[in-house]
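Checklist before submission:
- one chain only
- standard amino acids only
- sequence pasted in full

Submission:
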Amino acid sequence: MMGRVAGFAPGELVLLGLIGGFFSTRSMEVDDITPDQRRLFERFAGGDDDAYEAVFRQFQHEVYGWILRLVRDSGVAEDLTLETFWRIYRSRARFDPQRSFGAWARKIATNVAISYLKRQKPYTDLPLNLAVPARDSLAQRELAQRIEAAFRSLSARLQVVARMALIEEQPYEEIADALGLSVGAIKSRIFRAVRLLKQQLSDRGEHI
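Returned file contents:
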């Protein structure tokens, strides 16, 4: 997360470090396109149902993983993955085979996740199955729960940006592309999210 810290107060920098340490699940993703994939995407964009099925098999796990990082619920992520691919199917004629399918799919998946988060009731209960290492102390687990609860108190749009930037450490450019925003707008939302997260944790008795 180095190179992203300008403008944050010392306490907020500590919060950024805690968030990354507790929740990061980011893996390297390669989006290089082979000639065979290019031909597949051209058939897909042309309405070939067999090509759509092939694209679904190839990208379903990546889309599921992306959504899971945003909604933090495996059952919901499965449902939203299917909804995402239904939207992909309906929008296939607008896909440009010369561009990255993964980036296009992530943009659709992000919008699906945001729509879901907007429909949720305010978060009150703490989750019981957060991915905190067993070796961590009870105090650390409780802090992780408070951080997760603080995340879920954010608006859907801020929550998604904060998870993508602070937990998954996605590049700002990739987040901007997924949300259809400028990099400057993404930075502004992250800055606001960190301020709100710090306030939420302070209200919960966690002074960072």
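Reviewer check: The mean pLDDT is 77.
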